[in-house]
Amino acid sequence: MIDIENQLTLDERSTVDFVLSLRKRWSDTLYPALAEEYRGAGPVTSDLEEATGRLHRLSLYPWYSHLERVQQKMLWKAVGEAVLGRAETLREQLDELPERPKGDLRLSADTELPDWYTGYDIHIQPGSFYTDDLNAYVYELGARIVMLRDNDGYKFHRLFTETALPDVPAASRVVDIGCGFGKSTRPLAARYPGAEVIGIDFAAPGLRLAHAEAEADAAAISYRQGDGRATGLEEASCDVVTGTMVLHEMPGEAISATVREAARLLKPGGTMAFLEFQPTGDAFRDATIYEHAERNNEPFFRDLFGSDLLALCAEAGLTDATWTPFDERRDGKRPEGWGDRREWHFPWAVLTATKPQN
Ligand SMILES: C[S@@+](CC[C@H](N)C(=O)[O-])C[C@H]1O[C@@H](n2cnc3c(N)ncnc32)[C@H](O)[C@@H]1O
Question: What would the mean pLDDT of 114-127 be, rounded to a whole number?
Answer without folding.
Answer: 95
